[in-house]
Amino acid sequence: MRGKIISISGLDGAGKSTQLTLLQEKLERNGMKCASLQFEAEDYGERARQKVEELKPFDAVFTRLCIDWSNRFPLMHDFVYTETLQNAGNALAVTSVFAGGCLQVYHECLKPLIEAGVHLVVDRYWYDDIVYRSFWVDEAVVRMLYRSIPAPDLAVFLNTPPDVSYERNRQRIDGRSPLMGNLQNVRAVAETFRELAQKENMRVVDGALELEEKHALIYREVASLLQIEPVT
């Protein structure tokens, strides 16, 4: 059986990474082959090396993700996260660089895993890029860049209140998003997420629920997709 792609989307600070971890652990306890990762090409340096180690049992080889950006390719990190470059004038170039990295990750790493029957639990799949990049770039352009990557088999949207996301982003110690540093931007992005969720028939989970409640709702949807018993 081919593996399935399960994406979890939402604003910064929505708890996507936590839900990814919980879901992967439960699927593995139930004997499923599963790997989790952040889809966009952001796992550089030590984080990338850790991810490679995690995926070794599946004979997966990362290319772009395992580059030590601080010594060889600093462009992606600087290009995406500096205040001066993340704006409308540079948006198409930023989007193209991001999309190029994501295409390489999918075709060289993720597609072989799927074909080997590994289920992928993914944070920031390309649906998220539609939302964030279309803040400045037309949605049709973003979709065109990602057209060779399939839609997820199950897409979950954690619908977190914009004000909560804004405050969590302000308190982050692992890097703050310039775009999400403005509350009005956060509210606009949240509205785009809600519109996309409706358009793509994403499963919407109330981000204000307790962690375990959110996990139970997400797992129920995943269990239905994979045709397994929704056990705890």
TrEMBL record:
Recorded E.C. number(s)? 2.7.4.9
**Which Gene Ontology BP terms does the record give?**
dTDP biosynthetic process; dTTP biosynthetic process; dUDP biosynthetic process
- Record carries keyword Transferase: yes
Swiss-Prot/TrEMBL catalytic activity: dTMP + ATP = dTDP + ADP
Write down the InterPro entries for this protein, in alphabetical order.
P-loop_NTPase, Thymidylate_kin-like_dom, Thymidylate_kinase
Q: Where does ATP bind?
A: 10-17
One GO cellular component term, please give it: cytoplasm
Occurrences of domain Thymidylate kinase-like (ranges): 8-53, 107-218
- Provide the top EC class: transferase
The family database entries (Pfam families) matched by this protein are listed as: Thymidylate_kin
- Print the keywords alphabetically: ATP-binding, Kinase, Nucleotide biosynthesis, Nucleotide-binding, Transferase
Q: Show the GO MF annotations.
A: ATP binding; dTMP kinase activity
The text of the family note is: Belongs to the thymidylate kinase family.
Function field: Phosphorylation of dTMP to form dTDP in both de novo and salvage pathways of dTTP synthesis.
Extract the HAMAP family matched here: Thymidylate_kinase (MF_00165)
What is the protein name for this chain? Thymidylate kinase
The organism encoding this protein is Paenibacillus macerans
* UniProt gene name: tmk
